[in-house]
Amino acid sequence: MSILIKNVQLNQHPVDIFIDGSCIARIGEGLSEKAGTVIDGNGKAVVPGFVNGHIHAAMTLFRGFGDDLPLEKWLNEKIWPYEKHLSEEDVYWGTKLACVEMIKTGTTCFNDMYMHYPPVLRAVEEMGLRATLGSTVFDFFDDDFAEKARQQIEKDSILPHDGRISFSLAPHAIYTVSGATLQWANDLAKANGWLVHLHLAETQTEYNNSVKNFGLSPVRYLHRLKLLSPRLILAHCLYADEEEIGMLADNGVRVVHNPNSNLKLGSGYAFRYEEMKAAGVMVGIGTDGAATSNSLNMIEAAKIAALLQKGWRNDPTVVPAEEALRCITENGAAILNINAGKIEAGYLADLCLIDLRSSAFAPGFNFVSNLIYATCGDCVDTVICDGKLLMENRCLKGEREIVEQASKAANRLMTNHG
Amino acid sequence: MSILIKNVQLNQHPVDIFIDGSCIARIGEGLSEKAGTVIDGNGKAVVPGFVNGHIHAAMTLFRGFGDDLPLEKWLNEKIWPYEKHLSEEDVYWGTKLACVEMIKTGTTCFNDMYMHYPPVLRAVEEMGLRATLGSTVFDFFDDDFAEKARQQIEKDSILPHDGRISFSLAPHAIYTVSGATLQWANDLAKANGWLVHLHLAETQTEYNNSVKNFGLSPVRYLHRLKLLSPRLILAHCLYADEEEIGMLADNGVRVVHNPNSNLKLGSGYAFRYEEMKAAGVMVGIGTDGAATSNSLNMIEAAKIAALLQKGWRNDPTVVPAEEALRCITENGAAILNINAGKIEAGYLADLCLIDLRSSAFAPGFNFVSNLIYATCGDCVDTVICDGKLLMENRCLKGEREIVEQASKAANRLMTNHG
Q: Nearest C-alpha of chain A: how many angstroms from B353?
């Protein structure tokens, strides 16, 4: 398997890129390597594939099913009554639908958290994306549930999977998982070299309840449980003060900001990106599931993250376009311990070709600014992941069938259990 | 000139739409009117064309030329040194480029503010969009400038133009135009039935300087000058308290919110949409010029406006998707005194067909939610304005040439005067 991309723009210069197996083997002018596939890069620019740092892929089935509602009502009336009836088939098609949307908007890797691990794994293996797939752990502070969760994890974690895919443990949150189960998950993850993916400090309510129930704020509670480590990925982390950010930095914890979801659910807006960066916390960006924030477009997520920082800080200079792009490429890859996120020889061949003929790229003063601030995702022309072509000229094999099957599954679910 | 659209989804039901001349003549099932053009609406939904309430179209030439900079540095180093060298040809191509982007993302009408009125007018007449074109007035508190501005307006306002296009007066701001000139503009607009398009209360600095220089906050200053009236459209209005919002409502003043621009320039985020709505102020949404907020995509602007309100208020129920859509359709048309913004017989035939096959529309639980929250603008398939087909199947005549000519003009400008 090899691909040669000819005359593509990289940092505003035309180059050839030779991909051998799953890696970028060589970048230069006039490369003459023989390749199984040759792609004409004229009129296109290459960027690393985007990394979606926090998503519940299969929940794309619930997109638009309950918007603009208070969180409790949304969960109690729109999500939980239906989610418990999800079949493996439903989860499979929901995950495939998410993969279609991710590929079409340039995402090559994502950090998932969901139940029903086997059909999620099967869908992602088929779609060709790179992913860390988190099997969700709940115990609701009940020993029987905890035991069931442990048995579930045992089954999920031994399923064989493609090298592109990593297994991770995804305890849901500190208000649904006991400290003992969180520590069990951390120990197991440590022993197996897995990551731990956890929602934390997403809302003021969660923060207040943590103080009430555990006598400590969410980050301090994790610190007391000795769970802060480089294997921990925290989604959201909207409510963390300077001292807590210091704890995250000192322990190498990674954070994923989800601006669209935080805004749409009214969770808050003052994500302390600058403070985390200054302290040395690695920060990525996610879309969260399409049930909450509706779109899985990482260019949009990066734009909104940048705009939001500028807005609430009254400072147009923070998070310039280049930095927003870094968050969804290099940082995302670093958070997941993946050797991707850069277009350099030796890195994984996870990349997109961007169509520069779109009016959003005119005038062409600043490619990265145009990509982050002016386009809307449909400029992604070609997507390569792990050295394999997933989309070319916006054509994605099987797209129509997946959209139809996922829609059918979603309608069936709501009709049968409404 | 007549168009018959067959089997298109309107409020989730298939209908036929017959367009006769510039208006929607009839909507129903199985219409058999003979039409010059017949469009197959299968797999598509119809929505009113979007109204961009505040833009400087020609400034698309400056897109990406100076991002992520403090306002003063941006103006002094990146905009003003070049803007003064703009030729009529440059403005023409810049406006055409903006029109391309607007049509491709479903905008059929916009409220412009710029200098060089004749080439703006020529470009918009050719592109077929509906517009209110504001000729900018500056006097810098100087009598000679004021006199020149008056002469300019006299020349611009008598240019003949298509019925789709309205002339308006666009005094720039209270810090660049004296009270006397503002009053002159208001009197002239009143006598001629024109609208007045003004930046107001965009930044805390503007607010503070207004208090310092005029002894009153921006809205109160306009109130004292007796300028608050239904012919006044205020862009931004981020800094207005309850009493000021009452003054706007009592006098029928219209407001255009520009969330992307306000965030990107760090101007602020707490636009008081709910308070204005409660008081009865008509609020629309704009993108501002692409030099500041980079994209002219109104779906994106509506999404960010809705998300931002939910976020800063910590309330997911405010500005539901339907209301965000209304802001960029009905409200936008109302602000500009145009009989559009609804798909009903008797309304102007300014509308878009949305391609429902995109993965963003799966599942199809809620079309409006999917349109506002999940798509990214490229779902706009066909655009009709004033009963004329501007784009069909995303094909826009002359697009490639306009993108090229505008890019050339922008590069020439920066190269010759850099």
A: 18
Mean pLDDT of B169-188: 98
Q: What is the pLDDT of residues B182-194, one digit of tens each?
A: 999 999 999 999 9
Question: Are A34 and A115 members of one domain?
Answer: no
pLDDT value of residue B27: 98
Q: What is the SS3 assignment for B100-134? A: HHHHHCCEEEEEEEECCHHHHHHHHHHHCCEEEEE
Exposed / middle / buried, residue B38 (Cβ in 10 Å: 0-12, 13-18, 19+): middle
Residue B100 contacts residue B390 (beta carbons within 8 Å): no
Most distant pair of Cα atoms in chain A: their distance: 66
Are residues B355 and B232 located together in one domain of the fold?
no
Residue A411 within any structural domain of the chain: no
pLDDT at B71: 80
Q: Is B394 exposed, middle or buried (0-12, 13-18, 19+ CB in 10 A)?
A: middle
Write the CB contacts of A228 (distance below 8 Å, at least 6 apart in sequence): A219, A222, A247, A248, A250, A251, A253
A:260-279 residues touching chain B, CB 8 A cutoff: 260, 262-269
In this structure, the answer to whether residues B199 and B303 fall within a common structural domain is yes
Residue A33 near residue A18, CB atoms below 8 Å: yes
Are A414 and B365 a contacting pair at CB < 8 A? Answer: yes
Residues A129 and A264 in one domain: yes
Give yes or no for A89 touching B (CB within 8 A).
Answer: no
Count CB-CB contacts under 10 A for residue B331: 23
Do the domain assignments include residue A97?
yes
pLDDT above 80 (res A418)? no
Residue A72 is predicted with a pLDDT of: 82
Reported as a single tens digit per residue, the pLDDT across A316-352 is: 999 999 999 999 999 999 999 999 999 999 999 999 9
Same domain, B309 and B352: no
Q: In the predicted model, is pLDDT for residue B70 greater than 90?
A: no
Residue from B159, B166, B196, B202 nearest B181 by CA? B196
**Residue B418 confidence (pLDDT) above 80:** no
Q: A82 and A143 in one domain?
A: yes
3-state DSSP assignment of residue A197: strand
Q: Write out the DSSP string of B184-234.
A: HHHHHHHHHT-EEEEEES-SHHHHHHHHHHHSS-HHHHHHHTT--STTEEE
Q: Is A213 helix (H, G, I), strand (E, B) or coil?
A: helix
Tokens of A294: 């509706």
CATH number at residue A355: 2.30.40.10
Return the bridge partners of B135, or none.
B114, B169
Quote the CA–CA distance of A398 and A390 in Å, as a whole number: 11
Number of domains in chain A: 2
Q: Are residues B253 and B375 in the same domain?
A: no
Q: Which of B63, B274, B358 to mutate to test the interface with A (most CBs of A within 10 A)?
A: B63
pTM as predicted: 0.97
Same domain (yes/no): B247, B367: no
Chain B residues closer than 8 Å to A404 by CB? 362
Domain encompassing residue A366 = 2-48+342-399
Q: Give ipTM to 2 decimals.
A: 0.97
